[in-house]
Design a protein that fits this description.
mainly alpha, elongated
Length: 143
Amino acid sequence: MEFVEVRTRVLQDHEDLRLLLNAVEDLALRARAGGTSVIPQLRERGEALAYRLRDHLALEDEHLVPLVNAERGPEAVDQLAAEHREQRLVIDFVVERLQDETRPTRLMVREIATFAELLREDMAHEEEELLQPRSADRAVASS
């Protein structure tokens, strides 16, 4: 896959993840405000988001990593791999917490908020650092 194709696909995934994340955050806010009836839906949507993020990381591992290696070298790949390992640990943590039905709602909502913040930061970092058109692509785009 060419850089432009990978970039388009990853950016679309990021947009999809943001929409899912917004829905999960909305449910979390409703749960925090006392809407206990939304807690099962919050757990289900939160897990769906986590699994969707796992799929996204696999996409990046398969298609983005080779491009990062070619463009920026093995150190950048090592950094991306470390970020993906950390994200997978966070996903596992969040899923475990969502599945714990004894977990206080307030605590679960805080963990979701932290997860949302981390996910948004990671996506913004990738978009700014890894998904900007390369110099050769810029030259072609400006012609």
